Amino acid sequence: MKRFLFLSTISITLLASCDSDSVTDEFDNANGGDTAKKLIERVEFDSAQIDEEDYAFTVNYDANNRVTSASNGIDTGVLVYENNELSTVSGGSEPFSLSELYQDPYDVFETGDVLEYDNSGNPISVKVFEESYEFNETTGVFEEVIEEFTATIAYDATPNPYFYTFEAAGLIEVLDRVQLNFSMMPQSSEILRARALFPLNNIKSIVYKNEAGEVEGEVKIDYVYDADNYPSSGTITVIVDQEPTSVYSVNYSYKQ
Fold first, then answer.
1. Would you give the distance in Å from CA 197 to the centre of its chain?
2. Do the Cβ atoms of 131 and 109 come closer than 8 Å?
3. 115 Cβ neighbours under 8 A, 6+ residues apart
4. Which residues touch 187 (CB under 8 Å, ≥6 apart)?
């Protein structure tokens, strides 16, 4: 279950079409161009399972409504700006300079490839790879195992509630810069993937199938929306083959 909840979290927060428009243009086109600008302050996830802990994701802002830090309750990322642009993000390790995203090719394993987009520019079919290690009793060593899944994603006709929070953190500009410089210099494959997977609308379900086409997991999200079509709360149901169904409630708080 945790595997699919993790994949779903990555999909929901990092899942943009690949035409020449900026991410902002694509977002406006997908949502009618009159979306209210709301900034997320806190998202709380409460588990209905007694053996799982609740957790919350919080975002802090400065006087100019720029994101200064974000935390999941365990790890905290601190954002630093120079000349009104995001320059570094530091967390539990050494600070990472965003300038590297535009200068150095990264040799990373691709964990998601878009197979199909809908008419609004949302990825609706994504190939997902999961890497794990299993003990080989014959050789006596742990060996890498890579499983391949196809994720089919459906959306509500509402905006991605994280968009303006990402914009306030300078991340939309990062995605746009990658798009603009696509043919000019090597790009980080991680950021290119984020650019390709970024959702313009709000995800309501994800179905995972293995290479044989068998359903191995499903995530369903039923939202309660406010007057601006932003989620105020929701229920997440995670169904994984041969495991008990897990249910979570989620609540959103926005900056006033």
1. 8
2. yes
3. 125, 126, 127, 150
4. 101, 102, 105, 178, 181
Name the percent of the chain lying above pLDDT 90. Answer: 30
CB 214 within 8 A of CB 195: no
What CA–CA distance (Å, rounded) separates 233 from 45?
A: 10
Alpha carbons 247 and 256: distance in angstroms, whole number: 29
For residue 151, give the amino acid letter: A
Q: What pLDDT shows up at residue 212?
A: 93
Quick one: tokens of 44? 């709380």
- The single residue listed with the structure tokens 């806190």 is 42
How crowded is residue 205: how many other Cβ atoms within 10 Å of its Cβ? 16
For 103-128, the pLDDT digits (tens) are: 333 222 235 688 899 999 998 998 88
- Residue with the two structure tokens 């997320």: 40
pTM of the full predicted structure?
Answer: 0.80
Helical (H) or strand (E) element with 81 = strand 76-82
Is 130 or 54 the better-scoring residue by pLDDT? Answer: 54
Taking the C-alpha atoms of residue 62 and residue 111, their distance in angstroms, rounded to an integer, is: 34
- Provide the residue ranges of all domains of the chain, joining segments of one domain with +: 2-254
| CB-based contact 24:180 (threshold 8 Å) | no
CB-based contacts of 32, cutoff 8 Å, min separation 6: none
